[in-house]
């Protein structure tokens, strides 16, 4: 999820990263230079051709035995051994989300509509833990910590980029659900109210009763780059899509503009959140 927009990868393999893909490309280049097919190379290093493919495509962290045996095949130069020491998995961020996360770091306008959960940039540690508790397949403690660490790192943007305009529209029922219990929800509401006081951040609540609603097709995110180019991001279960088509982005921009008018005003949104906090 985007804002559970962290993942565990697929097939039990670690999530890809630039360093993994670079390492894999080097292995592939050396293998092809040696005139070996993946199957032939796999026999020499005693790993299947499918494992070789996963390493070369940057989808799998190479086992130490793989690196050592590959060194022997390629003449023991030590290059792969040194490169393996620099590999990173980029834990905590789902593979499909990383391009969007990279855009976030430079965006000058960011808009988020969410109807499933509180957006990741507004979440608290206890809320993230509550979300992780319901994850299937279950997450290990380390994965939960990585999930929160990645989320907390992204949230620094709210303070580090005071000239970036952040807009959030969140459905009222997301707060009323009390994910994690009353204590977690109280902490979450206090956090959202505090963040809403920042000059560059607008938080609006879409009320429960709303006869006209332009966001019924689901959550989405919009972002403007310093070059004034707009992108959108859509996310489903175990997948995400970065949208670059200007026509599609334009449609989403118009929907978001309409929802801003349909949601409660900034002041009324704060008042509602305060009342919700007082009812806990």
From TrEMBL:
One Pfam assignment: DUF5753
Record-linked InterPro entries = Cro/C1-type_HTH, DUF5753, Lambda_DNA-bd_dom_sf
SUPFAM superfamilies associated with the record? lambda repressor-like DNA-binding domains
Q: Where is the HTH cro/C1-type domain?
A: 27-80
Record's protein name:
Helix-turn-helix transcriptional regulator
Can you name the source organism?
Streptomyces levis
